[in-house]
Amino acid sequence: MDKKRMDTIISRFNDASVLVVGDLMLDEFVWGKVSRISPEAPVPVVDVTLITFSPGGAGNVVNNIRILGGKVYPVGIIGEDGTAQKLLAELKKKNIDVDGIVVDSERPTTLKSRVIAHSQQMLRIDREQRGEIPEWVTKQMLSFVRMLLPEIKAVVISDYGKGVVSPRLLEELIPLCRKNSLPIIVDPKINRSLYYKGISVITPNHHEAGEIVHQKIIDEETLLIVGQKLLSELESEAVLITRGEDGMSLFEKDGNITHIPTVAKEIYDVTGAGDTVVSVMALSLACGAKMKEASILSNFAAGIVVEKVGTAVVTVSELRERVKGAYE
Length: 328
What we know:
By secondary structure, this protein is of the alpha/beta class. It has helices at 3-11, 58-67, 82-93, 135-148, 167-179, 206-212, 220-234, 273-286, 291-305, 316-326; strands at 17-22, 24-37, 44-57, 71-78, 101-103, 110-117, 120-127, 154-158, 184-187, 201-202, 238-242, 248-252, 257-260. The strands form 2 sheets. A 9-stranded mixed beta sheet has the order 5-4-1-8-9-10-11-12-13, sandwiched between helices. A 4-stranded mixed beta sheet has the order 3-2-6-7. Helix 2 crosses helix 8 (273-286), helix 6 crosses helix 7 (220-234) and helix 8 runs antiparallel to helix 9.
């Protein structure tokens, strides 16, 4: 694929509308410096210099799509708490429509707090509830999806295993999307794999891919076995296995296999890299890109985001610059 074609796809991101269904969270980053060990226990003392918040989980997918110029509609659940207010404020700041987010006062909003000192994550604290969501919430979310379908050009299922993406939701959501000829991109949780049948593309990392089909990836031979098994079991159009410093491998239904080398210059933090991959994949497919084109662009975006610390996002100018550099 040449640079001109890549530029054309990126320039169409503004015309894309993507629905993101999944586990919304708030990411809190406590930034600081360490200069001493605590006298109370053998642990470092972090002098806090800054606290920042950003949408996490499926919210990070939403954030990525919006920053890249796409129109995005999040569908998920929050509690009736201060964390929810902070998350909604972060989304509204970016002019993101939050009408598809259901409030359940019985459930806390997922909050992940990370302590970072000298560009290193030292600790993560999770506050969440992982049980399946009530039936009334699922019905409300599906009702919102039905209403929005005429506006949408692609759907992301961002499954972090917190309860939103249930078998009940998937058995109605996937046929709905297929009926409307919408590409469905899934960032999976392993124990839900049976219910993803009929999607367009799934984007597991190599550990997840191996676990789904009970075959560890240890070399090129096992990678090929896992990719083909996944394609067959999920009856999907494609499988994109992300492989860290080894790049990505795309398996397509027509038998094509494409290995895409990594473009990251240096890896600082892989937080949110999977979210970036599905975001760019969804935007590209929504703009008419072929699966291979969407995968190559996703790989460029992932290469940028792992060079940043925290739940980072990619901008259009960064993506264009990275594409330009690769073709010079």
